[in-house]
């Protein structure tokens, strides 16, 4: 597999379109960081990292609106990819839907949202947009 982050986003996107409650994804450190950010920002209900004596599995409980049953995650878009990396300086960090969405940024101090990177005055690789 050449792009595990794109696979991660596609698995979540497919589970949301199929209205699944839980999705299982093979674990890695960067996927755990992206999942933590999605949980902190309220895009997923909960997650659990399970050890299966191999790679590990991340179980993600997807979030839907209670009355309309619409998914909270409308779009997941991969920005930086192995064939074309996208980097932004601290002054050029993207704003997703004028601040309604988030951009996940990989910085020298770890993976964080665009808002956190702005407050810490950091730039880095733009991994994906979520809204």
Largest sheet: 5 strands, antiparallel
For the record, give the distance between the C-alpha atoms at the N and C termini, rounded to a whole number.
26 Å
Overall pLDDT, averaged? 96
The oligomerization state is single chain
The residue ranges in which pLDDT falls below 50 over 5 or more consecutive positions are: none
| Shape designation | globular
Proportion of residues in helical segments: 10-25%
Number of DSSP helical runs? 3
Structural class, from secondary structure content?
alpha+beta
Q: Which sequence of SSEs, written as H and E, runs from N to C?
A: HEHEEEEEEHE
Radius of gyration: 15 Å
How many extended strands?
Answer: 8
Q: Strand-residue fraction?
A: 25-35%
What does the model show?
The protein is of the alpha+beta class and 131 residues long. It has 3 helices and 8 strands, in the order H-E-H-E-E-E-E-E-E-H-E. The strands form 2 sheets. Strands 4, 5, 6, 7 and 8 form a 5-stranded antiparallel beta sheet that branches. A hairpin with a 6-residue loop joins strand 2 and strand 3.
